[in-house]
């Protein structure tokens, strides 16, 4: 499965910057849907964050999904790769 990688940076309330990727099927182009996936992910965190908009979340590239990514996308519509300050 080809996926689109959306590079995302969101400021936490403690002023650290979270960096994570939102992974979606490459055919999905609706930015509002992708940002909603990011909002859903942020709600799962124990700490508060700033808002996520198209300013914080941008298309980066297309790649092939791993089996784990594909399973998450099939189950949730998206997958997340946590990069920095996501804990």
Record keyword descriptors for this entry.
single chain, 87 residues, alpha+beta, NE1680-like fold, 4-stranded antiparallel β-sheet, 4 strands
Which architecture does the CATH hierarchy give at level 2?
Roll
Pick out the low-confidence regions.
none
- Euclidean distance between termini CA atoms: 28 Å
Q: Helical element count?
A: 2
Question: In CATH terms, what is the fold-level topology?
Answer: NE1680-like fold
Report the sheet-strand fraction.
35-45%
H-E order: EEHEHE
Biggest sheet, in brief?
4 strands, antiparallel
The value of Rg in angstroms is 12 Å
Structural class: alpha+beta
Helix content: 25-40%
**Order of strands in the sheet with the most strands?**
3-1-2-4
* Count of the separate structural domains: 1
Task: Describe the fold and architecture.
With 87 residues, the protein is α+β, with helices and mostly antiparallel strands. The longest helix has 13 residues, at 31-43. 26% of the residues lie in helices and 38% in strands. It has helices at 31-43, 67-76; strands at residues 2-11, 17-25, 57-64, 79-84. The chain is built from two helices and four strands, in the order ββαβαβ.
Task: Quickly describe the structure.
The protein has one domain: NE1680-like (NE1680-like fold), CATH 3.10.510.10. The protein contains 2 helices and 4 strands.
Question: How is the secondary structure organized here?
Answer:
Blueprint (H helix, E strand, L loop, with lengths): L1 E10 L5 E9 L5 H13 L13 E8 L2 H10 L2 E6 L3
Antiparallel strand pairs: 1-2, 1-3, 2-4
């Amino acid at each position: 499965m080809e996926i689109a990688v959306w590079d995302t940076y969101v400021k936490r309330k403690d002023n650290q910057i979270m960096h994570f990727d939102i992974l979606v099927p490459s055919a999905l182009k609706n930015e509002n849907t992708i940002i909603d996936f990011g909002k859903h992910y942020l709600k799962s965190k124990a700490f508060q964050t700033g808002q996520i908009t198209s300013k914080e979340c941008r298309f980066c590239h297309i790649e092939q999904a791993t089996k784990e990514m594909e399973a998450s996308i099939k189950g949730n519509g998206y997958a997340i790769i946590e990069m920095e300050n996501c804990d």
